[in-house]
Amino acid sequence: MKYVNVEWDRELHGFRTDATDYLAVLPELRDALPEGARAFASAVGHYAYASERCVKDLELADIRLPTTTRGGSGTASIAFRPNPWKHAGGLRIQYTGVTHFSVDYESSIDWMESITVLLDEVLPSGEGGEGGEGEEGEAGIVHEIELTDATITVRCADLTATWAEV
User: Fold this and answer.
1) 10 Å Cβ neighbour count for 94?
2) The pTM is what?
3) Any idea where the domains of the chain sit in the sequence?
4) Strands across the sheet with 150-156, in order?
């Protein structure tokens, strides 16, 4: 991720996460984000660790990719189960106009029961990020989700995030 920091701390035996730099630049990026991505990234509680609407600690439940695109870009979705100690409901993210979807998975943590979200970052496509560099002025977004054992990168036109039972 370009602004959000996630790293393993050997002494802590856990992850250190910090969205401070992203939150500082987000007001400048807001106007370049499409409506759904802007609402999701700037939602109250998104990066407040104690909030029921914070993405941290959600559990990966399901990934659905398009089986046909009819010659164009497709839709995809990711569902996350709630952490029972923190979230009232799960989160489903629907992506439209998907041009890139990747999961970089490396099983390295064997003491957790599920793959969980550490943090995420939504950037305008022109800001780059993983999943291929976007062209300056290119419409759309790059959504990167750092998980305990994987990174998901989606390049798409926009997203819709819905908090509910998953």
Assistant:
1) 17
2) 0.85
3) 5-66+74-130+138-164
4) 100-105, 150-156, 141-147, 117-124
pLDDT along the chain (166 residues), means of 10: 85 83 95 97 93 92 82 86 90 95 76 78 79 57 93 96 85
Quick one: 144 exposed, middle or buried, by C-beta within 10 A (0-12, 13-18, 19+)?
A: buried
**Tokens found for residue 53:** 């609407």
Distance, CA of 146 to CA of 160 (rounded, Å) = 19
Per this entry, what is the length of the chain? 166
> How far is 130 from 128, CA to CA, in rounded Å?
7
pLDDT of residue 113: 63
Instruction: Provide Rg for the chain, Cα atoms.
Output: 15
